[in-house]
Write a structure and sequence with these properties.
12 strands; 2 domains; Rna Polymerase Sigma Factor, Chain: A
């Protein structure tokens, strides 16, 4: 059945920090004007008390659910957002925005610098997870929402959720960080640095000034291939690929003989069609800078009323369960009402996008209790 125009999801744009105002960044620099691309699902109630902010992961965007005109697939978390789903749009007003530093409608390195009339490129200021959240706060204020019912996100989205709880504890009731960490480990930083170096080593990167000549496709494709390996688990790769050959025989050449090689190449070279290389640099750096460990979390709060549901996955080796357990221990020190679940899964870090059934049970029950507070 053909959809009507009213059934398609629209991306909208919110611009703030216009002259003489600026968005003050943690680096000491500032940015303005700034634009956030965002989408909403469901209806904001009269009391403005049913809003849930969904925060996306590294390569995500504002299009979290539903179909836009021309789409072949739905938004990246469509299985979680909608009538009867974990984030039930019959009950809640869902907001998802593309982070600053991104490349899917929000201000980032590919945006035009009003001072030069050209893309910012690497003149764009280095941003942090805290800067992303501060920008989101402007959007929430624009809606007139004094207190969010919940902030939820997986991976880098989980970092944003934790940052919301730390920076704005009086402006949300609940927080659901999924498959994330309080800070990056040396291993996680190391992976990001290899990813960045693969981009910058491509001659087409041109010191970040490639917008007229075309982006560093080879370097960005390799970066995504590296990243994608970390999203899966040894078991999921064995089950999906094992040592299956693309053809019946080995080629004895440097081609993609194995199905896993072809899969990574496909992922890498499709990624360059939808993502900006400089944004990948900026966002991975923001993740590496993120650190809410110890006294950095809720520094002015000894006891918090924010309620937490922390979810991890047994096979996630990129953000292993012990990092979520670190979050739980820190929350206990803040006397926070905290529920923790380590879900059994073979899908690795990708589990937060795949294990919908179990996540839905947990989130529905958790939010039902939050609504009663």
């Amino acid at each position: 059945m053909k959809k009507t125009d009213s059934e398609f999801v629209r991306t909208r744009y919110f611009t703030f920090a216009e002259p003489p105002c600026r968005l003050e960044l943690k680096s000491g620099l500032s940015l303005g004007p700034a634009t956030l691309a965002y989408e909403t699902y469901g209806k904001l109630n009269n009391e403005k008390s049913n809003a849930i902010l969904v925060c996306h992961a590294l390569s995500g965007d504002a299009h979290a659910a539903g179909f836009q005109e021309g789409d072949k697939t739905a938004g990246w978390w469509d299985d979680m957002i909608g009538p009867g789903k974990a984030l039930d749009t019959r009950l809640y007003f869902i907001i998802c925005s593309n982070v600053i530093g991104g490349c899917k409608g929000s201000t980032g390195p590919s945006s035009i610098n009003p001072r030069t009339g050209k893309p910012y490129a690497i003149d764009f200021p280095v941003i942090t997870i805290a800067d992303m959240v501060d920008a989101q706060k402007h959007l929430i204020d624009y809606f007139g929402i004094a207190k969010l019912l919940c902030v939820i996100g997986g991976s880098m989205g989980g970092m944003q959720a934790l940052q919301w709880a730390s920076a704005y504890p009086d402006n949300l009731i609940a927080c659901i960080p999924i498959a994330t960490a309080l800070k990056h480990s040396p291993q996680q930083i190391a992976f990001d640095e290899v990813i960045r170096q693969s981009i910058m080593a491509d001659p087409a990167w041109r010191g970040g000034n490639y917008y007229e000549s075309g982006q560093p496709e080879k370097g960005l494709a390799v970066a995504r291939m590296i990243g994608h390996i970390t999203f899966m688990s040894d078991q999921s790769m064995e089950e999906k690929f094992s040592r299956k050959l693309k053809n019946e025989k080995l080629s004895f050449q440097f081609t993609d003989d194995f199905e896993v090689e072809g899969y990574l190449r496909y992922r890498g070279y499709n990624f360059v069609k939808r993502f900006d290389a400089n944004s990948y640099l900026y966002i991975t750096k923001a993740m590496d800078y993120f650190d809410l460990s110890g006294e950095k979390f809720m520094p002015q709060v000894k006891r918090t009323n924010v309620r937490f549901l922390v979810i991890s996955f047994t096979s996630d080796w990129l953000y292993p369960s012990h990092q979520s357990q670190d979050i739980v221990r820190l929350l206990k020190r803040k006397h926070a009402y905290t529920t923790y679940c380590d879900l059994k899964s073979s899908y690795g870090h990708d589990a937060f996008l795949i294990e919908i059934r179990e996540e839905t049970k947990l989130i529905k029950n958790f939010l039902a209790n939050v609504r009663l507070t």
